[in-house]
Design brief:
Layout: E1 14-20, H1 27-35, E2 42-48, H2 55-62, E3 65-68, H3 73-83, E4 88-93, E5 96-98, H4 102-109, E6 115-117, E7 120-122, H5 127-139, E8 150-152, H6 153-158, H7 170-180, E9 185-187, E10 192-194, H8 201-212, H9 215-221, H10 223-229, H11 232-239, H12 246-271
Helix pairs in contact: 1-2, 5-11, 5-12, 8-12, 9-10
Amino acid sequence: MPKVGESHGRNELVSIIVTTKNADRTLERCLRSLRAQSYGNTETIVVDNFSEDRTEEIAHRFADKFSKAGPERSSQRNLGAKLASGGFFLFVDADMEPTSHVVEDCLSHASRHHALIIPEKTVGSNWLARVRSVERDAYQGSFLFEAARFVNREVFESLGGYDTRLTGLEDYDFEARLEERGFLVGRTNELILHHEGDNDFVHYLRKRIYYAQGFPLYRSLHPIRARKQFGLSRAMFLLKKADSSPLAVSMVFTLKALEFAAAKESLALARLGKDNLNRDVYRAE
């Protein structure tokens, strides 16, 4: 097991694992940002969920390794880790754009932590991007609402990777297991730009509803943490932003209310054995 305080040489290979599904709209920007990293000793692995667009073509142009796997993002990430050669893993979604010093900054913290959270900033030109940006900024610095994306390989393998039963909440689950096992999780100074605001509202809501179907399992695995993450604690973090952006915060609460109502309906149908969502709406972004 790696010990905190171990030094990591400048030649340490970092494996960057990108999961995709029908992501040709955002993938090239993502992969170009990985090629532009200030730290050069990296490999990029794209694991695609059988896309029907130009995702594979783009991946072959910019990635070092490419594979196909399903049925969900957790399985794709675990396969990417098996294909990886590096001593550290960085997990990136296809609609993300790491700033140029992300990998270098992660390695500078790696001797003091077993895994690292990389702060994210939502970007986009529509109202959804504005609302999500306010929400994400409210959560900055909280280990409840952020999850590690950079992790020591030995730590990842000791945890058995991501829980393949979860989609959407697998990041929260992985963070919870890191903390439960006593691994030290830190935060970097660099940012990941998250282009989720480019999505239209219907797509965003359908994805959130789909992710909600894993909530009963997540709650059974981490009951105390789940209550904090999806209860009053979340509301309190948002209220801290109310003075600076009252209109935006009110819109965030409206968005969360819509998500909650739709997710509640989805869970009710799931208990009746009726899946109201086509699994094809899932995007490994």
